[in-house]
Amino acid sequence: MSLNRVIRSSLWLYISGIAANFLGFIYWLVATKFVGASVIGDAAAVIGVVSIVTSVFSLGISSGITRMLGQAQGKGDKASMGVILSSAVALSLTLSGVAAAVVAVASALYPMPGFEIPFLVVLIFSYGAVPPLQAFYNSTLRTSVIALSSVSASVLRVVLGVLFLYAGWSFEGVMAAYVVSSVTQNLIMLAYLRGAIGITKPSYQAASESVKVGLPSYLPSLVATAGSWLGVLGVYGFAGNLEAGTYYVAQVIAYIVYSLPLSLLGLMFPVLSGMEDGRKRATNRATLLTTAIVAPLAAAVIVYPRIPLSLLGEAYADSSLALQILLLAAFFATIPSGFNSLIYAYGKYRSVTVLGFAYNVPRIVLYPFLVAIWGENGAAISYVSGFVVATLAVSIMSRGIGYSVGWKQNAAAAAIPLIVSIPLYFLPVPWFAGAVVILAASAFFYARLGLIKKSDLAEVSLAFISKSQIQHLQPYARYVLDVLYGK
């Protein structure tokens, strides 16, 4: 497998993640000029409920067709891919409609603020087509379409949000912008299907097969969604909408860092599914490379957490500790993420389920206790505990398939930026200078210790520029390489 192709596609997927998180951060930054953190807390609660409800009714369809499409892609069977996709979209939209109806009925039996119900119903239904469409573009490595739809929807959300909030719509304006952007994302991904694949009549057999194949990941995915959002909802319930709003923003910033390993290692899954050999080696390389990229970024934000948070106001800067705790997971999140893609590609569904529980059961168990005691910091600790337990689970499960995780290399890649950042945390170094020091020093030690080889850099470079361009830039890059690796 050519890793540079996966890297190139993961770049677009990372841009998609950045659009959903960084532009989301910009959205909240703008929104705070019109509304307080309490309104953002209410909006975060709605988004959390939507995420949990749609996950309950998803039945693992997107995961199922990711594997099915990956296998069909490996065989060059485009006809089957069309049947698989159309069947999955039809089933997913049907389930979303049922979910929206259930929420509408439940709201009549158990009253909640009336202004939230329309947004809940519309968002639940509009989300239905997104997972299977994203699964298709992931499997075909056309992740640029996901990035385009995500960026366009996020930009539109910011623009409309400003207009609605300026008009005085408050909470309604925040959520209306979310609804329009969600519909827009669907339309863009549907538009790019034209000419790329033949959409056929949905097949009951293909739909049921997508559920069958996806069921092993369904419960872990459901638990994962609960593990992510129960923290926000728990803070909302125990501490109120103000602290829920500040914690949610801290979580968004942390996700900007997390999205890199999730995009690269998650994208490995459909590629690994179509491979006959070299899966373990490819996973090992991708995991180490991702750790070397994400660890310095996380370290830089841990040292200067108030910088991004204070942009929204001093009320948000109070979540600095919660952000630091959340980012600790970035130093070992790549190991269980990469291993999950590997075992799913092998078809070891039981192991996928076990790892999913290892991720999220500790979070769900700890949330009620730690949130009640420490509020948003307790929610952050609970969330990070899932990564710790999942990593321990990988240390046991990897032996069963003879997979060498590369503990020493990944530990070194995670430890280097942490060690560099410790003195900077206590010294009065400006944040922009400190961040450069962390990134540059990490790159230097990665090269000198052989963690990242020149061949890795070459393959990463090929993901973004052509060979002729590399040859043209080689004289200029040689000095940098000499500094990093020595002459």
TrEMBL record:
<feature type="transmembrane region" description="Helical">
    <location>
        <begin position="432"/>
        <end position="451"/>
    </location>
</feature>
<dbReference type="InterPro" id="IPR050833">
    <property type="entry name" value="Poly_Biosynth_Transport"/>
</dbReference>
<feature type="transmembrane region" description="Helical">
    <location>
        <begin position="83"/>
        <end position="109"/>
    </location>
</feature>
<feature type="transmembrane region" description="Helical">
    <location>
        <begin position="325"/>
        <end position="347"/>
    </location>
</feature>
<feature type="transmembrane region" description="Helical">
    <location>
        <begin position="286"/>
        <end position="305"/>
    </location>
</feature>
<keyword id="KW-1133">Transmembrane helix</keyword>
<keyword id="KW-0472">Membrane</keyword>
<keyword id="KW-1003">Cell membrane</keyword>
<feature type="transmembrane region" description="Helical">
    <location>
        <begin position="12"/>
        <end position="31"/>
    </location>
</feature>
<dbReference type="Pfam" id="PF01943">
    <property type="entry name" value="Polysacc_synt"/>
</dbReference>
<feature type="transmembrane region" description="Helical">
    <location>
        <begin position="43"/>
        <end position="62"/>
    </location>
</feature>
<feature type="transmembrane region" description="Helical">
    <location>
        <begin position="354"/>
        <end position="374"/>
    </location>
</feature>
<dbReference type="GO" id="GO:0005886">
    <property type="term" value="C:plasma membrane"/>
</dbReference>
<dbReference type="InterPro" id="IPR002797">
    <property type="entry name" value="Polysacc_synth"/>
</dbReference>
<feature type="transmembrane region" description="Helical">
    <location>
        <begin position="115"/>
        <end position="133"/>
    </location>
</feature>
<feature type="transmembrane region" description="Helical">
    <location>
        <begin position="218"/>
        <end position="240"/>
    </location>
</feature>
<protein>
    <recommendedName>
        <fullName>Polysaccharide biosynthesis protein C-terminal domain-containing protein</fullName>
    </recommendedName>
</protein>
<feature type="transmembrane region" description="Helical">
    <location>
        <begin position="252"/>
        <end position="274"/>
    </location>
</feature>
<feature type="transmembrane region" description="Helical">
    <location>
        <begin position="175"/>
        <end position="197"/>
    </location>
</feature>
<feature type="transmembrane region" description="Helical">
    <location>
        <begin position="145"/>
        <end position="169"/>
    </location>
</feature>
<keyword id="KW-0812">Transmembrane</keyword>
<feature type="transmembrane region" description="Helical">
    <location>
        <begin position="380"/>
        <end position="398"/>
    </location>
</feature>
